[in-house]
Write a structure and sequence with these properties.
heterodimer; A: elongated; B: six-stranded mixed sheet; five-stranded antiparallel sheet
């Protein structure tokens, strides 16, 4: 168990460019989440997957954002035409859903990918 | 709409003191509450998870309590150490079907040697 892994850890880009972040969850975790955290604030929910299905998206996830989890393992978060307001830490988390009785709901987070848009 | 508040925003105490961090939430109908630690520029480390049916959880020098009826949770840190310096975040899950955690803004804790 190597924990949740995120790459790259830090990305600096110019406004208008596209960026992609990758998240590798803890093995056997079937749920994967993306959160965004700006300086001095708590993380805010963006979206989550159960296996390969994207089941919920926040209104924070504008049309420029797209997330995928094609094989139910790793996930990517792409931001198109980046804006300075997209500068934030993008956090990935995973959990193992075992059904309504055994599910603890505990989330495990990665180290995050920090995006700086110039 | 569920709102989570953490007071104070920052706390500085001498090494060795016991301390309490506070978390309040507006809607008492929660599924669970989780406390996290975040070091500067890093991700979140899960510290304790309290289910809605539980009153407290303990891990080493940490003890978290939950009072759903009053919409409050506290994180007690005993015999604080400089290595405890970090931001502490609490987050609530609204119900079993809800997937998002609602976070507070965190308390930035500094333990002075």
């Amino acid at each position: 168990d190597t924990g949740v892994s995120q790459n790259p850890r830090h990305k600096i880009t110019k406004r208008g460019q596209n960026v992609t972040f990758r998240c590798d969850p803890i093995s056997e975790h079937n749920r994967l989440y993306w959160y965004r955290q700006t300086l001095g604030q708590g993380p805010e929910f963006l979206t989550y997957f159960q296996n390969e299905a994207q089941l919920e998206k926040s209104r924070l996830l504008s049309d420029r954002f797209s997330a995928e989890r094609p094989k139910g393992s790793f996930s990517t978060l792409e931001i198109q035409r980046t804006e300075q307001g997209d500068s934030a830490m993008y956090l990935c988390a995973s959990s193992r859903y075992r059904g309504p009785i055994k599910n603890t709901g505990e989330l495990f987070f990665g180290e995050g990918s920090r995006l700086t848009v110039l | 709409k569920q709102e989570v508040t953490q007071i104070p925003a920052a706390l500085s105490v001498p090494e060795g003191e016991n301390l309490v961090l506070n978390c309040s939430f507006t809607d008492s109908a929660i599924y669970n509450l989780q406390w996290f630690r975040q070091d500067p520029g890093k991700g979140l480390t899960s510290l304790l998870l309290i289910q809605s049916s539980q009153r407290e959880q303990t891990s080493g020098r940490l003890n978290a309590s939950l009072d759903k009826s009053s919409g409050r949770s506290t994180l007690y840190i005993a015999a604080s150490q400089p290595g405890d310096s970090a931001t502490y975040l609490c987050a609530v899950r609204l119900d079993q079907g809800a997937q998002k955690l609602v976070f507070g803004q965190g308390t930035r804790l500094t333990i002075n040697p």
